[in-house]
Design goal:
204 residues, alpha+beta, 10 helices, 4 strands
Amino acid sequence: MEEENKVILHGMWASPFSKRVELALKLEGISFEYVEEDLNNKSAELLQLNPVHKKVPVLVHNGKLIAESLVILEYIDETWKNSPRLLPEDPYKRARVRFWTSFVHQQLCETVLTAVKTDGEAQERNINNVGLLDLVFFSLFGRYEIHEEVLGIKIIDTEKMPLLYSWVTALNLLPLVKESIPPHDKLVAVLKFVRENALKSSSA
């Protein structure tokens, strides 16, 4: 029976996209094997599993490959239906969650990534029922203070965005989340490394 439900997650410890899938699997109580990938030296296995985008996360369930974090999250929700659902049962509510999930993922994620890779004016211009939206939101903004420390910009203003601040604070207090958060100093070091290399590339 265990062989019939073999789940392997290929990820990278600092990737918010990998982290959202890892949290979902733990939230659902799904046993899985985790394979850490080095994105600077991608393994032959990763390139074979995801030949199109060549990136993490990749979920392997009984030999079936699923790529892209949002697609993986919906697959988890639809496959393990006896576990807590990530999406509401009601079609209208599901549609609303999908809309806001897409918004957070596409609009806000793009803004943060642009801020990481730019500086100065360009940077300024781009500035306990856990479900799919919570996972996506937290994976991007759960450690917002790290982005603020490295980028020197305000990501979440507690006075202007009290609801967002309360949301991320509540998620950070969940025991499951606390266990899964990488060390602060390691995340700062990775973000600084990515930023410095991106700035060097853009000025070359």
